[in-house]
Amino acid sequence: MIHFESLSTSINWGLCSGRAMETHIDFVQSLDTDVSLNIMTCLNDPADVIRAGSVSRLWRQFVVTNGLSKKLCVGRFQQLSKIARITELDLSAAEAKDVGSSNSNWENLKRDHEVYASLLQAIETSKSCRSDCIGYAVSASSTDNYPDESIVNTLIPMEKYLNRPSYWSSKGHSDPNAPETLIYKLKADLCVITEVYVQPFEAYFQPGKPIYSAKSVRFRFGYPKSSRDESDLLKMPQQQPADDKFIWTYTSEEFPMRKEKCFQRFNLPEPVLCVGGYLQIQLLGRVQRQEMDDLFYICVSHVRVVGRPLSPAFDVEVLDPSQEFVLKYNRDVFGCMLQSLSNGSPQDSNMPPTLSEEFVVDAGIVEFFLQNHQPGFELVGWGDDDDDDDEMDEVGIL
Q1: Do strands 164-165 and 95-98 pair parallel, antiparallel, or not at all (unpaired)?
Q2: Do 21 and 56 meet the contact criterion of CB atoms below 8 Å apart?
Q3: Helix and strand totals (H; E) in the chain
Q4: Cβ within 8 Å of residue 219, ≥6 positions away
Q5: CA distance 71 to 77
Q6: Is the dihedral of CA 90, 93, 99, 104 positive or negative?
Q7: Is the dihedral of CA 247, 252, 257, 261 positive or negative?
Q8: What is the distance between the terminal CA atoms of the chain, rounded to a whole angstrom?
């Protein structure tokens, strides 16, 4: 049996000793191609892919010719099997060029190797450099009392604004198993997501302060079915369902949700590569009736999606009608990204988001207020005033 240690020994010896291949058996030269590939695909560090291609000319030819970096990418993220071609931005010419459009087959293979190896490296570094990845809210499957209880409220890191509690509420339903969905656009069309946070809403203005959580939650990532659907999304009211306009390429396991007023953290088993830039949160089942109408509701205060946008170093374009992708690569930006990471300090992966973090008003929130509030409204003076609880008596039903 051939063990992975054989590969590590060969790589290390080859890098550290000029006479490695004279004194050690080179399995790439001695074994069948399929067997050597099985060994090489055990690599789990993108840096090892680069090292493997640096051991010798023979190893570089083997790694590049057999598309090892692409095999590793597709093996970890099946969505990447739909990449039709790679486009590289040529900054010197200020235009995008299709990789391989005017190069030899060997040059094309070398560029593919570099791009996929760089993508692997960018994905790997996302584990130590994380941020909130939500760009704006798209739609909710239902909304009660729109726009006051809009999905946009879930992106405001405050308990209250405009003297009202900040939360999204579904419409009431007599069936406790009736699901709801929330859809968000991420900050880039290519993102690595590691975890999602959801905070159920506590109706502190109702008797007993009930918490309108879901029974469980599930997450899906994907992209619009067509460019027309994506254009339609920008025009759709946020209280109108949009689930039928997407192709979901990843669906998580189902996570139980606690009936607690806190940011609940849902860790994805492995980092998920979101191709297309859209997230759907499925809220499955209802646990709380409202006293006034005896109907079940689901309400969410806050949502955060933690990971890392890969743009502008990488981007994707979905092709109609084939649903294949164009992978866009910016070599210079990728180099700057790695440099900034090496100079910076990684974030604490165990640090949960808090409502005290600085609030940045994004375009989605601004658009919401421009559309649904009277002219002259200013985004100032928001706060968690404790003296407005009496006003909540007027809210009544969620």
Answers
A1: unpaired
A2: yes
A3: 11, 19
A4: 196, 251, 252, 266, 268, 279, 280, 281, 282
A5: 10
A6: negative
A7: negative
A8: 64
Q: Is the peptide bond before 312 cis (omega within 30 degrees of 0)?
A: yes
Three-state SS for 77? coil
Q: Is 305 exposed, middle or buried (0-12, 13-18, 19+ CB in 10 A)?
A: buried
- Alpha-carbon span 16 to 18, nearest angstrom: 7
pLDDT tens digits, one per residue of 230-277: 888 888 888 888 999 999 999 999 999 999 999 999 999 989 999 999
pLDDT in tens, 276-315: 999 999 999 999 999 999 999 999 999 999 999 999 999 9
Between CA 373 and CA 361 the distance in angstroms is 16
Q: Are strands 288-289 and 296-297 parallel, antiparallel or unpaired?
A: antiparallel
Q: Which two tokens stand for residue 42?
A: 């055990």
Strand partners, 184: 137, 279
Which residues are CB-contacts of 210 (< 8 A; sequence separation ≥ 6)?
202, 203, 288, 290, 291
Structure tokens of 124?
Answer: 């790997």
Compute the distance between CA of residue 116 and CA of residue 325 in angstroms, rounded to an integer.
14
Radius of gyration for the alpha carbons in the chain, expressed in angstroms and rounded? 25
Our CA dihedral for 54, 316, 312, 270, rounded to 10 degrees, sits at -70
Question: What is the Cα–Cα distance from 40 to 76, expressed in whole angstroms?
Answer: 14
Provide the residue type at 109 as one letter.
L
Q: Per-residue b/e over 239-267, b at no fewer than 16 CB within 10 Å?
A: beebeebbbebbebeebebeeebebbebe
